[in-house]
Amino acid sequence: MSERPFVHTGTEMQSDEETSNLLDTVGLIENEKIRTRINLINEEIKRCLLDEDGEPALLYETTRHLILAGGKRLRSLLLILCCEAVGGKVVDALPFAVATEFIQTASLIHDDVVDEDAMRRGVETTHMKYGGKMAIIAGDLLVALAIKLIGERSTPELLTYVAAGGIRMCEGEAADLLMSQNKVQSYTTAAALEIIRMKTVSFMTSAAKVGAMLGKAEKLQLEALIKYSEMLGFSFQIRDDILDIVATQNGTGKTVQSDLRGSRSNFVIAHALESCSPIQKEEFVQKLNEGDVEYAMDRINEYKSVEYSSEVARKYMLKAKEAIRGFDFANEELLLLLADFAMRRFY
């Protein structure tokens, strides 16, 4: 379904207290239920990784580095919540949720190699700690482990859904890389939304489909959960783009203002560029290529691009909530909470 635009040093997982603190940024009362599910995902990730202890040992150490550093677990949580929404059991969804995290983490490891970023989830990026070649192999291993997990429990249809989401995500990464090479013509909010659709939304809708199908969703239920996850994906990624612009390193655990270096698309930057005159746009792109963060921030503030982006993200969040109303999903309050969390998080 298409939606038109609106115009770490350690390798320990986050503790219960840390997870709670992150969720408390939403200011809602249901965080205990969400935290319980995240903890289940984290424990299953650890168990699966400990079960896989092959050689050479350094490869498996490298593979565990980033995924054991924590993370929001949004996609795996979405899969579980969509399964539960239609009467499915967490135990049936958990292996697929872990496989989703493996694939997502593999993509982040490879992204960091391409972008030459130094920090992710509060720790050194995998390639900075273990070298680029070993990082790439570790990412490949995570994908293989995900396929193994799914293959042991899946139908061909479910495996196809997961693979399709991964394929679309790779296409989005390539499109993003190509777009960044021709910013003057291609850097628009519409193009940024299309990149978000391919890179983020596609994989989130894939996770929602798998979860809903595991729970044996009816057709209309499946369509509603897919629409919800699509809108959630847009809201989440636009908020992520905002955070990359304004947050401090301690707040995100990522390389500070990495998108301002101009190597990747960012909805906030796209709006600022789109608001410029043709001459100013040429200068803006040149400054981005030179890594002139101060100039970029001046243009972003001048055109109120953060405020604009926040409003767009909010509208997508409201559409996500609206998509699931009236279906009497068993855990509707948690799905609504997740939509709030995606929009209001501060890390």
How would you explain this protein's 3D organization?
There is one protein chain. This protein is mainly alpha-helical. The protein has a single domain (16-344), classed as Farnesyl Diphosphate Synthase (Orthogonal Bundle), CATH 1.10.600.10. Helices cover 73% and strands 1% of the residues. The chain is globular, with a radius of gyration of 19 Å.
Helix and strand arrangement:
Layout lengths: L15 H9 L6 H21 L5 H11 L6 H12 L4 H26 L3 E2 L2 E2 L1 H5 L1 H20 L4 H24 L3 H4 L2 H26 L4 H28 L2 H4 L14 H9 L2 H13 L2 H10 L2 H20 L7 H13 L3
Antiparallel strand pairs: 1-2
Radius of gyration: 19 Å
- Please report the total strand number as a whole number: 2
Q: So how many helices?
A: 17
Average pLDDT for all residues: 82
Q: Name the beta content range.
A: under 5%
Sketch the topology as an H/E string, one letter per element. HHHHHEEHHHHHHHHHHHH
Question: Can you say what the CATH homologous superfamily is?
Answer: Farnesyl Diphosphate Synthase
Structural class: mainly alpha
Q: In whole angstroms, how far apart are the ends?
A: 30 Å
Proper CATH architecture: Orthogonal Bundle
**For the report, how would you describe the main beta sheet?**
2 strands, antiparallel
The rough form would be described as: globular
The CATH topology corresponds to Farnesyl Diphosphate Synthase
Work out the count of structural domains.
1
Secondary structure: helix percent = over 70%
The residue ranges in which pLDDT falls below 50 over 5 or more consecutive positions are 1-30
Give the spatial strand order of the biggest sheet: 1-2
The CATH class label is Mainly Alpha
